[in-house]
Amino acid sequence: MTTKSMPREPAYRFGDLLALARRDWVAQLAAGLAAAAYPDYRRSDAAVVRLLDRGARPVGKLGDALGVTRQAARKIVTGLQRRGFAEARRGRDDARQLDVELTAEGRAYARVLTTVIDDLNRSLAERVTADQLAAADVVLRAVLTERSARALADRLPHPS
What we know:
Layout: H1 14-35, H2 45-52, E1 57-58, H3 59-66, H4 70-82, E2 86-90, E3 98-102, H5 104-127, H6 130-143, H7 147-154
Antiparallel strand pairs: 1-3, 2-3
Helix pairs in contact: 1-5, 3-4
């Protein structure tokens, strides 16, 4: 009998569980922000707002940091502008460059967003053991195959 005709053991559905966990995490984040008077959370907010909270960035570099095209980054910025969280200006040295920075309301949103994320992280850490959290960290890092994603993950602290 060849291996082609032999029934295979079903594979563990890690990707499905990861996708469900991500969906639920985003829903918890949105609920936390809604409770703090920010009901219009968008999936890109967590990354882009925290990046811009470190200082103004050109749209192109923002796209690079987010792993999206310049056009997609511009669309994200437009959404932030419409909600009053960011403003964009032509670059001082290069009028083709569009620099983006958070407004005062955007910085307030960034503080609340960071607090909600910290609270979610603490809540998770309280529901599992330190060894379980460390094992999850190892598994999630093993999922990352793209160099830039691994480089970003290398800058994140391991659980303590």
